[in-house]
Amino acid sequence: MRTIALLCAAFVAAPAFAGDLVAYEGTDMIRLTPQTCTNQAVLNRIDPEVRELFLTASATLRGQRYTACWSITPTAAYLVYEDGDQGLIPLTKLQVPVDI
C-alpha cells in the first residue's frame, strides 16, 4: 500500500476530458473513462488519501473482462485492478475510441 501512496503522491489531478480514452494492443483493450471510481473492491486497494484521484476503467485482456480504477501521472495512466494487479499505460498509447 505504501507503493501506491508514494506513486499517487506524484500524480497530478486527472485532466478533464469529455469522453473515454482507449489503449489497444492486439485484441487486448483498456478503456479509461472520466467517471469517478466507485468500485469498492478496487478502492479498498488504494490509499484513502488519494482515492479521489481515481477514475473508472475497464479492460479486456486475453479475452477476460476486468474492472479497474485509474489515475494520471505525468507520463502514464496508472491502473489498479480489483484483483490487486497494477499497471501503467504510456499516455502516447491512449486514443479516442472509434465505437461502431
Walk me through the structure.
By secondary structure, the chain is mostly beta strands. The protein has one domain. It has a six-stranded antiparallel β-sheet with strand order 1-2-3-4-5-6, with no helix packed on it. Strand 1 and strand 2 form a beta hairpin. The longest helix has 8 residues. The protein is globular. The protein starts with a helix and ends in a 10-residue tail after the last strand.
Q: Strand order, main sheet: write it out.
A: 1-2-3-4-5-6
Q: The biggest beta sheet, please?
A: 6 strands, antiparallel
Order of helices and strands: HEEHEEEE
Shape: globular
Count of DSSP helices? 2
How many distinct beta strands? 6
Uncertain stretches of 5 or more adjacent residues: 1-16
Helix content percent band: 10-25%
Mean pLDDT: 85
Count of distinct structural domains:
1
Radius of gyration: 13 Å
Content-based structural category: mainly beta
Strand content: 35-45%
Report how far apart the termini are: 39 Å
